[in-house]
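To fix ideas, we quote verbatim a fold written out as tokens:
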Amino acid sequence: MTKQEIAEIKKLLTPKKCSITRICGCYVDGEKNKKTELKQAFLALPEEEMFKYFEILRKTLSGTIGKNLLNLEFPLESEETGGTQDFLLRLRDSKLKDDILLDEFYDRIIDNYEFVGNYLIIIVHDVYDVPGRTRDGIEMEDASDEVYEYILACICPVELSKPGLSYNAVENTFQNRIRDWVVGLPDTGFLFPAFNDRGSDIHSTLYYSKDPEELKDGLVEQLLGCPLPLSAGNQKETFQTLVEETLGDDCEFEAVKNIHEKLNEIAEEHKDEPQPLMLDKNEVKTILAGSGVSNERLAQFDRHYDETAGETTALFASNVMNTRTFEVKTPDVVIKVNPERTDLVETKVIDGRKCLVIQLGGNVEVNGITVRAGGAVESQEDEEE
């Protein structure tokens, strides 16, 4: 799913656009016991509760694609009778009115979700008449030729509110606040089926994880049955290792700066595309070659890539590059530079030592104090006079 398609579904999770038919839930304690269950028509909820659920559901569709939001594809075996995709399809088609399927859904989560504490499982069913669109993107509400039926599920931690003092308006006094159990924003969740090309794609699902480095592998494997990509952090580490191993002794400041600039250039070229930029093995090799890496070093690139990332693995460009800053770090010094002005930083040999040289221009501040950038040079000239 693209950012635009995700945004279109998020718009349904508002009072104005809501068409959710049913909401169900199961409250689980820290001992994995089902404490209570919720089953009712969504529009029958009190307005204040409805708004709280909207906030939770919308959060399940928030984040960055490739980090918090992952487009996952079901393997063929999962679509066979008894497979994970087949189960989710039957759950959706039941419109959440089959208690046996719901219990099995809750049990699969309880058996495989690793969490210390209480949590609430929420699942909703919705049917969306997808409006047609003109070529210039204008929606035509009366021209729907696609019906998107889906379920959206999430798991929310339930924790005691913080202790403190509260004001009792009746007695006009401050008292110890009564602590109660509060449902937090979701830790993980998924949308099934995916809304690809503005239509239902039963072969895919959109998975959400609050922490992009904790993807809940066991839960995904047993509940969704989809293979997970490398986490955002692992993709970044993989790319860094790949560059270091490919360049070897040539992995110097200027070489890495050239790669950074090349990545930024490619990101700028693709910034208006709906799909996030993906880099496969050939594209990464092309980037290194375009950054000046020698053919001798590139001769071993394929082997390094297969060993480090995997032959068929593609990396999200947003995970392996930092478009906001260019950072140079030593054990004692950290320098952050505007990524568009890496030309201000270079290496030079001064008095027999290799140094990092930063060209100063405009205002210079030290601990918030504006200093004269050319002060030292002017002093030297004064001495010569």
